[in-house]
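Standup notes
- DV: blocked on the single-chain target, sequence here:
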Amino acid sequence: MKKSRKKKIVIAIIVILVVFAGIVGYTVISDLKQEEKLSNELSEIVDLTNANLSEMDIDKINEKLDNIITTGDYATVEKAFKSYMKDAFNSLLQIVDVLEDEKITTLLTVENYSKDGKEFTDSKKYISDMIKKLETYKEDYHKYMNKEKAMSYIENKGLDSYYTDLYEKEYIGDINSLDLSELDNSIDELISILKMEEEVLNLLSDNPNSWTIQGENIIFSDNNILDKYNNLVKKVETEITKI
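- DV (later): unblocked, structure below
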């Protein structure tokens, strides 16, 4: 499962890059120094997000997003967009943090059976909490990848229509058309696996007298429970190989 988890992280990061490249990948040619400065600044942020997860300098990205380099009305536009971009990016990082959680890979191990069995109270709570987090983070991220949400960051700023149009057309663009299916699929697949793992733990906790731990193995005294266990574990393994 460790390999599949890493693949999910890669998928999520690819979506991060695609989304933000789509947001700031504009080609405004302007003589206005402020717009040129802002264009270069956002391009640098895109370059920072194009690194692999292990090489991505989150602190440097946040430093860029917190620093305003333009002045006047352009600074208002820059501040609004960077605030929006930071919130959306942090929403994505929450999802990545869940996908990276090592505990997901240890639920169906003899070590965990010994530690948390035979009720598996902690493991079941962990699964429930993780599913809620994933569903919440998925919903939150979709809210950010919406033009109405993006435009809310520049509302009521007292700006001339030129600047709000600049923000909308050049920085936000057609954000509603972004394809989030890869990230959605990654989250849904992980939720499905967590639920199947929960089935395995429920089987064991519902039949505590049918199994014991001997050394590094789980031993069943009831062949019917053994068959059910093997079938459920096989389902988990099959789902993992699909992703």
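- Follow-up: Strands lie at 211-214, 217-220.
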